[in-house]
Amino acid sequence: MTNEEIEKIAELLFKKMIDLQHEFDNKQNEVSYHVYDEFGNSSKIDELSFFHYELDRLKDLENKYIEEEKYEKAAIIKNKLDKILIKINKLNND
């Protein structure tokens, strides 16, 4: 092998290592959440799916409080719903 061929192989290996490092870094920066259903089963989901999951859960809770005429608690839940909707909109725009 000539020095030129060795240099090309070394350059290709270096580029491959850099690409793998970028891929690894991107995976480390991803946010994921674990959610559990009523049977205790766990699922790993992304941030947007988690906020939709929370949105559904909080809507059910808000409806329960309204049905029980616990309006102060329903108002607190409404504020949380508004904050989650803002986060969902922000994620959708990114």
Observed structural traits:
single chain, 3 helices, mainly alpha, 94 residues, two-stranded antiparallel sheet
What strand order characterises the main sheet? Answer: 1-2
| Major sheet summary line | 2 strands, antiparallel
Number of helices: 3
Assembly classification: single chain
Q: Which regions are unreliable across 5 or more consecutive residues at pLDDT < 50?
A: none
Q: How many strands? A: 2
SS-based structural class?
A: mainly alpha
Rg computed from alpha carbons, rounded to a whole number of angstroms: 24 Å
Distance between the termini: 49 Å
General shape: elongated
Mean pLDDT: 87
Portion of residues in helices? Answer: over 70%
Query: How do the helices and strands follow one another from N- to C-terminus?
Result: HEEHH
The portion of residues forming beta strands comes to: 5-15%
Describe the fold and architecture.
- A hairpin with a 5-residue loop joins strand 1 (32-36) and strand 2.
- The chain has a two-stranded antiparallel sheet.
- The protein is mostly helical and 94 residues long.
- The chain contains 3 helices and 2 strands, in the order αββαα.
- The protein starts with a helix and ends with a helix.
- Helix 2 (47-67) packs antiparallel against helix 3.
Task: Describe the secondary-structure layout.
Elements: H1 3-29, E1 32-36, E2 42-46, H2 47-67, H3 71-93
Antiparallel strand pairs: 1-2
Helix pairs in contact: 2-3
